[in-house]
Amino acid sequence: MSTDTPTADGADTALAARIEALEQEIAALKAEASNDQKKMTIVATQGSFDMAYPPLILASTAAAFGWEVVVFHTFWGLDILHEKKSKNLKLSAVGNPSMPMPNALAALPGMDSMATRMMEKRIKENGTATIEELIDLSLETGVDLQACQMTIELMEYDEDDFYDGVTTGVGAATALNHMAESDVQLLV
Amino acid sequence: MSVEYEISETLDVKGLSCPMPIVKTKQAIDPLSAGDVLEVISTDSGSMSDIRGWADGTGGVELLDQKEGEDGGDAVFKHYVKKTE
Prior knowledge:
The complex is a heterodimer. By secondary structure, chain A is α/β, with parallel strands linked by helices. Chain A has helices spanning 8-33, 49-64, 78-81, 103-106, 111-126, 131-140, 149-154, 172-181; strands at residues 39-44, 68-73, 144-148, 167-170, 184-187. In chain A, helix 2 packs parallel to helix 6. Chain A starts with 7 loop residues before the first helix and ends with a strand. Chain B has a single domain (9-83), classed as 2-Layer Sandwich (Translation Initiation Factor IF3). Chain B has two helices and four strands; from the N terminus they run βαβαββ. The longest helix of chain B has 11 residues, at 47-57. The N and C termini of chain B lie far apart (26 Å). Chain A: It comes from Natronocalculus amylovorans.
């Protein structure tokens, strides 16, 4: 049998190799399609005390489900990841329809601090985790907490201002890619 | 109801509220071996639905039983989660 001219045997071998390659490709696609690993991407845009909780609670719980979780923090959402600011997030008393006081009263100096202190006390009494605990827990359980690079610069923050383990140097395109791959996408 | 399983470990999350009972349960069950049963004791009434939801949505664990009881006047919720793989 000559090796430099195509023979019936050679064509069979090439065909068999092609079939094998395609079978492997199908098996890989099937494995990918049946992969029940879920993914969630949250975009966190708010930095008030009450708005810091929902993304952190959902992220740490999703991590307990074994999901891959990304939380992309932008604008005031950055303050959640800011080591100093995260310990001093405020509940806004003004314009908050759930606060049991009129806006004229809520706008008085010191009202935000008072409302925040009241909520912090309630949180302690209720056995609810602190924001810092939820951040530590999220990082510990593999949640990817990302800080938007454009808003880091806009707010004149430094990369060192954030908790260790926070991902920096990411932007809208990164967030979009994660969202496109996710089963759950939320904007908070 | 007869207890047909042996408890391997007990996790006390009394006083903690959502999402800590779930997160702590996950952390406590990870180092266990297949076949082990984790008992979770909580005072969070939401844990009845949440532990069930977590067990349903998570591979490798099975919720065997849930019990409501009382401890010194406080409602206590007990969950029995088996690690299956």
